[in-house]
Target: 4-hydroxy-tetrahydrodipicolinate reductase
Amino acid sequence: MKIGVVGCAGRMGQMLVREIAATPGCTLAGGTERVGGPALGKDIGTLAGLEPLGVVAIEDAAALFAEADAVIDFTSPEASVRHAALAAQSQTVLVIGTTGIGPVQQEPIAQAATHTPIVQSPNMSLGVNLLLALVEQVGRALGDDYDIDILEMHHRNKVDAPSGTALGLGRWAAAGRGVALEDVWQKVRDGHTGVRPRGEIGFATLRGGDVIGDHTVVFAAEGERVELTHKASGRQIYAKGAVRAALWANDKQPGLYSMKDVLGL
Ligand SMILES: NC(=O)C1=CN([C@@H]2O[C@H](COP(=O)(O)OP(=O)(O)OC[C@H]3O[C@@H](n4cnc5c(N)ncnc54)[C@H](OP(=O)(O)O)[C@@H]3O)[C@@H](O)[C@H]2O)C=CC1
Ligand SMILES: O=C(O)C1=N[C@H](C(=O)O)C[C@H](O)C1
Model:
């Protein structure tokens, strides 16, 4: 399977190039970077810390989608919307790991998925996807005597908050309670907040250093506290999941899929 990487010079882009090069049955279709970006014209293997692969980073995403069987996208929300339109046009499988995508940007992505298979997930790791299922189960079992807060910490270069994974965990906790996250969330607390409303799901965001991604869901009641935690110690877990998603989606009908579909959870 020929897999392309948009944003191939980014933290995840480099990891994806290494993962595709190391996966039997996969070849690199090429890679793109932002128009005017400093990595353009550089070998994508060299950018990823490998031997040169003889393929340079280009800015023409349409050419990459025409060449590839699947494209993996860990870029920015604006870029992911454009890439989804290109995937629909060329009927290429698309895997989206980008986070910070709001409801307005999500609409054209869902529309593109009526033309081609798209797998979208804020976290491609097996561990976090298992955690989502556990959080739903615990949310259902404990009910709203237990206050739910979600704490996440990431590296200083992360640009969106709360993380896509934290919001996903909140969504599954809310689903366990039979409510919509948007009806109960408190994304930031500041100043004289008053007492905690029953049923609220809160978020706390920490940023610093090189932390790859830590998430904890706290269920706190009178007399006890349950905490479910995932800590990433490398980005390979995300790249492995994304390549697995591309291979899985290759023979699927158009549609918007998640890692839960890919992993059969
Ligand atoms: N789902 C998951 O499992 C995971 C998701 N993520 C998410 O992935 C995204 C990227 O993260 P990360 O790799 O750390 O970020 P980086 O900023 O390191 O990488 C993003 C790359 O995409 C490039 N880019 C931006 N716009 C375009 C464009 N239009 N065409 C081609 N390339 C473009 C950027 O270039 P430039 O720097 O020049 O703008 C950069 O090289 C984030 O949203 C993050 O939250 C991260 C890890 C795991
Ligand atoms: O930006 C990151 O680095 C990560 N982003 C994703 C998110 O927003 O949840 C996944 C992972 O936590 C790393």
User: Anything to note?
Assistant: The first strand starts at residue 2 and ends at 6. The two ends are 25 Å apart (CA to CA).
